[in-house]
Design a protein that fits this description.
213 residues, mainly alpha, 7 helices, 85% helix
C-alpha cells in the first residue's frame, strides 16, 4: 500500500490523528503517480527497442543470417524494416507526448482522458509488435520457400513423389508453432511489464472517478 492509499483511508476520519487531505492534494498525488507510470512506459519501450536492436546486431554475423541474406531478401525486408522503425519512432513520440500531457494536466477530467489515451497507445503498441512479428515471419517463409535452393529441391522432390502437400503442411505447422511460442513469450513479457503498469494506471483512473463523483 503506497502513501496515497494510506492517506486516503484517513482522509475523512472524525479524529485529528491523521492529516486531512483536500481534493487538490489527493489529485496532485494521483497526478504524480500517473506521470511516473507513463514515464516508465516511455523508458521501458526505449529499453526494449535498444535490446532488440542489440540482439539483431549480435545475430547479423551468424551463418543462418548470412545464408538468408544471400537469398535476395533486401527488396522485401528493407521496406519492412524502414516501415517498422518509422512506426516505432511514432509510438515513442506518442509515449513521450502522453507523459508531457499528463505531467502538465491541471484538472481531473483531462487527466482521466489522458490516462485512457495512454492505455490505448500501449495496447496499439503491443498489437503492432505482434502483427509485425507475424508479417516478417511469413515474409521470411515466402523468401525461403522460393529462393532457398535446398528447400526448392526438397519441394520438387516431394512434388515428384506426390507428397508436396505433406511437405508444406509440416513446414507451415513448424512455423506456426514457432510463432505461437514467440507470441506467447512476448505476451508474457508485455503482461508482466506493461500490463502491471497499465493496471496501476487504471487504478489511478478509478480513483479520479471517485473524486469526480
Amino acid at each position: 500500500m503506497d502513501e496515497l492509499d494510506l492517506l486516503k483511508k484517513d482522509w475523512n476520519k472524525d479524529d485529528n490523528v491523521y492529516p486531512k487531505l483536500t481534493y487538490n492534494e489527493i489529485y496532485k498525488m494521483i497526478l504524480k503517480k500517473s506521470s511516473s507510470i507513463v514515464k516508465w512506459i516511455f523508458i521501458i519501450s526505449l529499453l526494449e527497442f535498444a535490446f532488440w536492436t542489440f540482439i539483431s546486431f549480435l545475430l547479423k554475423d551468424t551463418e543462418s543470417i548470412k545464408r538468408f541474406d544471400q537469398l535476395g531478401a533486401d527488396p522485401i525486408f528493407i521496406p519492412l524494416i524502414v516501415i517498422g522503425y518509422i512506426i516505432l519512432v511514432f509510438f515513442f513520440y506518442l509515449f513521450f507526448r502522453n507523459y508531457r500531457r499528463i505531467s502538465a494536466t491541471d484538472n481531473a477530467k483531462l487527466l482521466m482522458e489522458n490516462i485512457l489515451k495512454t492505455r490505448k497507445t500501449v495496447k496499439h503498441y503491443v498489437a503492432f509488435n505482434l502483427i509485425y512479428l507475424v508479417i516478417t515471419t511469413f515474409a521470411a517463409l515466402y523468401i525461403v520457400l522460393n529462393q532457398n535452393q535446398i528447400i526448392v529441391a526438397q519441394i520438387e522432390k516431394a512434388a515428384a513423389s506426390g507428397e508436396v502437400f505433406k511437405f508444406y503442411a509440416v513446414f507451415i505447422i513448424m512455423v506456426v508453432l514457432f510463432l505461437a511460442i514467440a507470441i506467447g513469450i512476448l505476451l508474457l513479457f508485455y503482461w508482466v511489464v506493461y500490463g502491471l503498469l497499465l493496471k496501476r494506471l487504471n487504478s489511478n483512473y478509478k480513483e479520479l472517478k471517485k473524486l469526480e463523483v
